[in-house]
Write a structure and sequence with these properties.
Layout lengths: L1 E8 L5 E13 L2 E9 L5 H11 L10 E8 L1 H12 L2 H4 L6 H16 L7 H5 L4 H4 L10 H8 L6 H12 L6 E10 L23 E8 L5 E8 L8 H12 L5 E4 L6 H10 L2 E6 L1 H10 L2 H8 L4 E6 L2 E7 L1 H27 L7 H14 L6 E5 L5 E5 L1 H9 L3 E6 L8 H23 L11 H27 L6 H8 L3 E7 L2 E7 L4 H10 L12
Parallel strand pairs: 5-8, 8-9
Antiparallel strand pairs: 1-2, 2-3, 4-15, 5-6, 6-7, 9-14, 10-11, 11-14, 12-13, 15-16
Helix pairs in contact: 2-18, 4-7, 4-17, 13-14
Length: 539
């Protein structure tokens, strides 16, 4: 049987629809049909139900339909695809059991989507497609001890893994290496011999820490990570890196870019001896000393505020760079320090004291100026009656103002191999690496580190490094397509695309995917990821 719709037009211009339930049957003269009933007067919704039922469709009351196991899916689908395309399945093939490899993959994915301690991974993974994306059973419990044992599989395997990561990411050898350091502090004691007190880039000198040394290419794609003792001096990290890159990756001819903290005479001499190029930034004091030794012509050029000024002094090549924005920033920063320092000096001078201690007051003034980073701008004295006097060092302030916005770069590359503009470009690439460190420590949340065994602290950092590597590879692809937004942020937006199974009564039907919002759909088209969401996977 079927529903037949017939139209009839009247002379008054109106058209009427007639809904008839018809039954087909065969006769010796051929197929025929007859009317079973007229359903024209029934409500439209009822007519639609009859039509659908006669077509063989299953009909269920709406209150018996529900979405079973709705899971956050979109970002995990992208990560799973990237994991496969970048060959990380083969890379991890020799590590532990299949479940341990899946647990390591889950930890790496979680660093990009919902960073959390290993203890909280089971809770964070609820309502997501994480287990299935990593080849684990849907009911995976992500036991903390099992994750620790899986992490232990990296012991003794990391050098080989890093070699393969380098080979996959860099078919041709790297010619420019950017190198920088950052620190990660512990809330507690941390592992013995590794967690030490030192210079904290997080301004937490009261906490033991470790130092992370990362080398990347100009695009920010990481080559190597090393975990060092928290009290390691910056200048003592560079030669170890050079040795590692030569032995592990075969990098024998390259230009290295690093900040001034690592540019000791010994390091620069070692690089010259190894035949390696370098670009580094020197201190403001070195810039002042060099400016004082320059000839009058170069000093006038420096005063004319050219964007780049190249100088060769005592056989060494320097590039002085800067701009209006840096000049304004330096001026405002110095003025802010002067204003805060004078306000503090006035406060100390106005304080009434029952007993005058000249030495104590002078010590308070000195500590206050040092805390405000303005000690070099003032001279002060305390009289026997406790009267405090101070004055600015105007000559020093004017001399410093003439160099506002400038910074000094030093390189051993020739002008033909690396012009001044390229030297500046190399150093600006290092600034982008520093931004990548911010991503590594914010989006991936290396902190807090809850491990107490040194090898597990190192392996925790290595897993964060792998997440960073995966993010950097995706970012490199996406930038070529015009998307410059941070990869973790895009992935977290895509997680709003969800999967679920439609349940009608006691029966489970097919897997469904939520409707993708128009802005996300446009972004998927731009990134070339629509194929991943053409049809939902089986749950």
């Amino acid at each position: 049987m079927f529903v037949q719709i017939t139209k009839s037009a009247r002379k008054n211009g109106k058209t009427y629809l007639c809904y008839l339930v018809r039954e087909a049957f065969r006769t010796p003269q051929g197929p025929r049909s007859r009317t079973v009933c007229n359903i024209t007067d029934l409500p439209p919704a009822t007519r639609d139900l009859i039509t659908a039922s006669l077509k063989g469709q299953d009909l269920v009351a709406t209150d018996q339909c529900q979405l079973e196991e709705a899971l956050d899916y979109g970002g995990l689908a992208v990560l799973r695809d990237a994991w496969s395309r970048f060959g990380l399945d083969a890379l991890f093939a020799g590590l532990g059991t299949s479940r341990q490899r899946g647990l390591l993959q889950a930890v790496i994915f979680s660093r990009l989507l919902f960073p959390c301690p290993k203890l909280s991974l089971a809770q964070k993974a609820q309502g997501t497609w994480l287990a299935q994306a990593c080849g684990l059973q849907p009911g995976e419990g992500f036991d903390e001890d099992d994750i620790y044992y899986a992490m232990d599989q990296l012991n003794g395997q990391w050098v080989n893994l890093e070699k393969q990561l380098y080979a996959r990411a860099f078919p041709q050898t790297v010619r420019l290496v950017l190198y920088d350091l950052t620190s990660v502090y512990f809330e507690g004691k941390g592992p013995e011999h590794l967690a030490q007190y030192g210079h904290s880039r997080d301004h937490r000198g009261d906490r033991p820490q470790i130092i992370l040394a990362v080398a990347t290419d100009p695009e920010g794609l990481p080559l190597h990570v090393a975990v060092l003792r928290g009290n390691r001096n910056d200048t003592r990290t560079l030669q170890g890196l050079l040795h590692t890159l030569r032995r592990r990756f075969g990098i024998t001819e390259a230009t290295f870019v690093f900040d001034g903290g690592m540019s000791s005479r010994m390091n620069l001499a070692a690089m010259d001896q190894a035949g390696l190029g370098y670009v580094t930034r020197l201190s403001a004091a070195t810039l002042q000393a060099l400016a004082a030794e320059l000839g009058l012509e170069k000093q006038l050029e420096l005063g004319d505020r050219h964007p780049l000024l190249e100088v060769t002094h005592e056989g060494k090549r320097y590039v002085i760079a800067g701009g209006p924005w840096r000049q304004q920033r330096d001026r405002e920063r110095r003025q802010s320090r002067l204003d805060k320092a004078e306000a503090e000096l006035k406060r100390l001078a106005a304080r009434k004291r029952k007993k005058v201690d000249v030495q104590k007051l002078a010590s308070q003034v000195g500590r206050a100026l040092q805390r405000l980073k303005a000690h070099q701008y003032f001279t002060y004295r305390v009289e026997a009656n406790g009267q405090l006097h101070w004055e600015r060092k105007n000559d020093l302030i004017e001399q410093e103002a003439q160099q506002d916005g400038w910074y000094l770069l030093h390189t051993n590359e020739s002008v033909e191999a690396c012009p001044a503009q390229q030297v500046l470009g190399h150093y600006k690439g290092l600034l982008e690496v520093e931004e990548a460190f911010c991503e590594l420590k914010s989006y991936l949340e290396v902190r807090p580190v809850h491990h107490r065994r040194p090898d597990r602290v190192v392996n925790h950092v290595r897993l964060c490094f792998l997440a960073y590597w995966l993010s950097a590879r995706l970012g490199s692809e996406w930038r070529q397509k015009g998307v410059k937004e941070e990869v973790p942020r895009v992935l977290r937006q895509l997680q709003t695309i969800r999967l679920g199974r439609l349940q009608t009564g006691k029966h489970l039907h097919r897997t469904l995917m939520t409707q993708i919002p128009k802005p996300l759909n446009q972004q998927l088209h731009q990134l070339g990821l629509t194929r991943l969401f053409a049809a939902p996977p089986n749950l």
